[in-house]
Design brief:
345 residues, alpha/beta, TIM Barrel, eleven-stranded mixed sheet, 12 helices, 18% strand, globular
Length: 345
């Protein structure tokens, strides 16, 4: 997910004041759009319920009009496609993306970035090429390890495995010339960590010689949902040691790899909103089933109907100057909800 707005000079960590200015800047807008909340996968650790389908036509129209309302005052527009599996509604993605390209006047001080979180099953070389022409050029694709492990956790709704199709698509994108960047999100679990050195060697040799590919090593977390209690996770105390070992496999300090670190979550930023397929406005792509994550609705004319009381809860990290809350505002909201509903001792 896109979260950054203006770059800070050098590699230093921006101050809280700089982050605040960036997060509340009217000249920047990050839209997280759910083209569909259906998915062709049923991953064992998924937290979504797939209760909503494709983005409704009046919501599509509302997104376009929202962009029309804001475009002249923007310096930076980011659209992040999420789902479900967003490519199940590729026509909606192409429709809205084409509208952005046609609407934006592309002055020198304006920039537009499109990215997508996809399971990769539909990301063929031709699809990647077409989307890149519409400004969608960054893709995050998850793998759970070698095929024997991956196909036990990232399975199709039909029950079949998914590794072969994803791998073929990634290789085809590598062999093509699309102007894209692919972030391979490698999930780490107690079940796969021992085979990860061999698998990451294959990843390195197959993809990392191409500068368009990078790796994110991500231990699986319990994120809620029906399967939450059955998910096996690596203890947090072991994360640093395991990540250091696997980083060495990828090439050490010079490896083309990313590691998740503490940052300001997109959900804590005032200029970042999620628009669901049914038009509800939220902040967090994880807490889809929590009513606290619904802060308003997108209207067909492109205006936003916002519940300011609900919205304020997502900004408490700024009020307290607490980076840990800013790193995950939903954790603080969920904790407060739990405390409010707990019986008095």
């Amino acid at each position: 997910m896109s979260s950054s707005t203006y770059a800070i000079a050098g590699d230093r960590e921006p101050s809280l004041q700089e982050e605040f200015a960036s997060s509340f800047a009217n000249a920047s807008l990050n839209l997280i759009l759910l083209s569909t909340e259906q998915c062709n996968f049923r991953c064992s650790y998924c937290y979504e319920d797939f209760a909503i389908g494709r983005m409704a036509p009046d919501v599509v129209a509302g997104v376009k009009r929202l962009i029309d309302r804001r475009i002249d005052g923007l310096r930076y527009l980011s659209i992040s496609w999420f789902g479900g599996e967003p490519l199940l509604a590729r026509d909606i993605i192409e429709d809205i993306s084409a509208h952005v390209v046609a609407t934006a006047r592309w002055p020198s001080e304006f920039s537009y970035h499109g990215d997508m979180t996809t399971n990769g099953s539909l990301l063929t070389a031709s699809v990647a090429q077409r989307l890149s022409e519409l400004g969608v050029r960054s893709f995050q694709v998850s793998l759970d390890g070698p095929q024997a492990i991956h196909d036990n956790t990232r399975i199709r709704a039909s029950g079949n495995g998914t590794f072969d199709q994803i791998w073929r698509n990634l290789v085809a994108v590598r062999d093509g010339k699309a102007d894209v960047n692919i972030l391979l999100r490698i999930h780490l679990t107690p079940e796969n960590v021992n085979v990860m050195p061999e698998f990451l060697t294959l990843i390195r040799e197959t993809f990392l010689l191409d500068p368009r590919f990078k790796v994110l090593l991500k231990p699986i977390e319990r994120m809620g949902g029906l399967n939450n209690d059955n998910i096996s996770v690596i203890p947090h105390a072991d994360h640093e040691r395991i990540l250091a070992t696997l980083r060495a496999v990828l090439g050490g300090e010079n490896a083309d790899c990313w590691f998740a670190g503490e940052k300001i979550c997109y959900a804590a930023r005032a200029n970042s909103i999620m628009i669901r397929a049914d038009g509800r406005i939220g902040k967090c792509t994880v807490a889809l089933s929590d009513s606290a994550n619904t802060i308003g609705r997108l209207l067909p004319d492109g205006s936003l109907q916002i519940d300011n009381t609900a919205l304020k809860a997502w900004f408490q990290g700024w009020e307290k100057g607490d980076r840990s809350i800013l790193g995950c505002p939903y954790a603080s909201i969920a904790h407060a909800q739990g405390a409010a509903t707990s019986p008095t001792p």
